[in-house]
Structures are given as C-alpha cells and as structure tokens.
Amino acid sequence: MAKHKVFISYHHANDQAYKEALLKANEQYDIFIDASVDTGDISDNLDDEAIRQKIRDEYLKDSTVTIVLVGLQTKYRKHVDWEIYSSMYNGKVNKQSGILVINLPSTGCTHFTAAHGENEKKKVYPTTKSWTSITIRSEYEKRYPYMPDRIIDNLLNKDAKISVTNWSNIEDDVSKLEFLIDVTFDDRFNCEYDLSRPMRRKNA
Q1: What is the secondary structure of 21-78 as a DSSP string?
Q2: Can you give the CATH number for the domain in which 161 is found?
Q3: For 155-179, what is each residue's pLDDT tens digit?
Q4: Is residue 165 part of a domain?
Q5: Is the pTM of this model over 0.85?
Q6: Residue 168, exposed/middle/buried by CB under 10 A (0-12, 13-18, 19+)?
Q7: What are phi and psi for residue 6, nearest 5 degrees?
Q8: Is 195 part of a structural domain of the chain?
Q9: 33-34 and 65-70 as β-strands: parallel, antiparallel, unpaired?
Q10: What pLDDT shows up at residue 1?
Q11: Is 88 inside a domain boundary?
C-alpha cells in the first residue's frame, strides 16, 4: 500500500500518550506520513470561514486522512471540532480528507462502525458475523457517548463514509491500522459530508 499523509486530531492534555504510541508504531512499521501540526495558536476571534481556511490551507495542507482520537473530553474541544470541520471541507487549494475515528480505552467503547464495505468487515472484524444499521441519533449517542457531535452528524449521513474502531483493534495489529488508513484515503472523494453544524466556539 502507498503511504498517505495523516493528520492526527486529539485532546492534547489528556491523550498525548496515544498520539505518541501511533507515531512510535509508525516509526517501526512505516505505515503513514505524519502531517500533524499543532493548531492550538489559532485565535477564536476569527470568523468561521477564516478559521476553516487557515486550518485547511496552513495546517492540514496536503494531508489526505485525518485520524480523530476520541477520549473522555475530546468532544468538548473547539480545536478538535475545527480540525474535523476543516478536514471535511473541500477547499479550492486543499481538498477534503477521509476521516477515521479511533475510540481510546478511556471511553470503554466496544462498538464499532465499518463504513468501507465487506473487505473492511472481513479484515478488521473477522469474528463479527452480525451487523446492525443505525439510523437514529440517540442510538449512536448511546453507543458512542464521547463522540464529537460533528462525527455523529456524519455517521447518520449515508453519503459520508467514516469508520469508527477501537484502540484495542489496532494496537496489536498494525496491518489493520494500515488497511483502515488506506480505505479511508480511497473513499475520501466519495464522501458528501454534513457541515451544517456551526463551529464550536469554546471548550466545555
């Protein structure tokens, strides 16, 4: 598989160790090109369009896949929301990215979502024989109580292809992570993201 440029979005104060673990695995197995840059110095006094353009064109640049690491407080961080929004935005200079969500152990999540077809189900979840389609928000919120709202918007959107996996699924098998990055990259232009939610203006 060709390597792809990956931007990692996460709550720096709580979940830095997991980003470092991803980068350590990448150093060992050469899975992706790390394109992560800290966006924490962007002023929230800018309007939404200025924030979006700055993140998409200056920070995400030519990254093609965004990995969102979800911990207990991730959904309340404005910079994470800005990074997700900007990843979904199909700009004139830098086009939209594919998005992969990894629930961290702190969330206790055991559910997962395979958005990229039968090959993903067989490769990443070979022992899962029964799959359920979710169509209501409350069920997603029950399964993923720590998920950013913008991600849930798009899990409900049949035209967006966002997979959700758990850290335990990829920590002992980097080939699964490599596969998920690759299919997320391949499907990035097949996504019609829901960007209707206003950008978060403050941390909760």
Answers
A1: HHHHHHHHH---EE-----TT--TTS-HHHHHHHIIIIIITT--EEEEEE-SSGGG-H
A2: 3.40.50
A3: 999 899 999 999 999 998 999 999 9
A4: yes
A5: yes
A6: middle
A7: -115, 130
A8: no
A9: unpaired
A10: 67
A11: yes
Residues of the chain with pLDDT > 70, as a percent, come to 100
The residue segments making up the domain with residue 184 are 5-190
Give me the number of domains the chain comprises: 1
Q: Which backbone phi and psi does 68 adopt, to 5 degrees?
A: -105, 115
What are the helix (H) ranges across the chain? Answer: 12-29, 48-54, 78-88, 118-124, 137-143, 149-155, 167-170, 174-186
Per the domain annotation, does 200 fall within a domain? no
Tally of helices (H runs) and strands (E runs) in the chain: 8, 5
Q: Which amino acid is at 114?
A: A
Length of the chain: 204
Q: What does pLDDT average to over the chain?
A: 95
Q: Tokens 């499907």 — which residue? A: 187
pLDDT digits (tens, 9 = 90+) for 85-115: 999 999 888 999 999 999 999 999 999 999 9
Question: Do 157 and 200 form a contact (C-beta atoms < 8 A)?
Answer: no
- Mean pLDDT for 24-37 is 95
